[in-house]
Amino acid sequence: RMLFVCCDDVLPAQSQLIMALKTLCGFDTREIAQRLFISEENVYKRLGRARTVFRAQAEHFDQLGVEHYAARVPAVRNVIYTLFTEGYLSSHAEMAIRHGLCSDAIRLATLLANHEVGQEPETFALLALLHLHAARMPSRQTAAGDLLLLQEQDRSVWDWRMIEAGVTWLARSAEGDAISRYHAEAGIAAEHCLAPSIEATNW
């Protein structure tokens, strides 16, 4: 619910994202700046303006109707996608993968997909993408914590339950006529996960 509150379309799209990442996801200003490719000063300014708007509208937070939730679903998906991205390839040099963030993103995306306002092909495609990427995480690092390229990964340790879940969500995302970035990225991820080897990948 708080994600939907942060994604108020009275704010610019980037300010919505910054507000959610800072207030709800626990990102610090440096992490947000690095993840969004903007300066920390820009982050501070946008946060300040967003907080001013929120203080003025605080009394209306309990008055969100179905139409408000429906309109904000794309922005909420973007927050979840960004949360997972920071977990999957962290901006912290000493911590390349942040598994907790990935798990939180999958949990939130699942909640969204199971709620009537979020039951859309784009949400299903996002969930497919998150599962398919998460399935390969057991093989993405060496014992020392260094990242491994796809061709260096041991496919035998991939999480096939996650892959099956991802493929199932990808099939559900084919409902309707909408094709989003999540569909495209999930389709590519599925090809990599289902290929028996790097050489056999359907490039």
List how many beta strands DSSP finds.
Answer: 0
Number of separate helices: 9
Indicate the structural class: mainly alpha
Distance between the termini: 40 Å
Give helix and strand order, one letter per element, not per position: HHHHHHHHH
Mean pLDDT across the residues is 92
Strand content: under 5%
Radius of gyration: 18 Å
The largest β sheet comes out as:
none
Helix content: 55-70%
- Would you identify the regions where 5 or more consecutive residues have pLDDT less than 50? none
Shape by Cα distribution: globular
Could you walk me through the main structural features you see in this protein, from its secondary elements to its overall organization?
The N and C termini lie far apart (40 Å). The mean pLDDT is 92. The protein contains nine helices and no strands. The chain is mostly helical and 203 residues long. It has helices spanning 2-6, 13-23, 29-36, 40-57, 66-88, 99-113, 121-135, 160-172, 181-194.
Could you give a quick summary of the protein structure above?
By secondary structure, the chain is mostly helical. The chain has nine helices and no strands.
Key features of this structure:
single chain; 203 residues; mainly alpha; 9 helices; 60% helix
Can you lay out the helices and strands and say which pair or pack?
Blueprint: H1 2-6, H2 13-23, H3 29-36, H4 40-57, H5 66-88, H6 99-113, H7 121-135, H8 160-172, H9 181-194
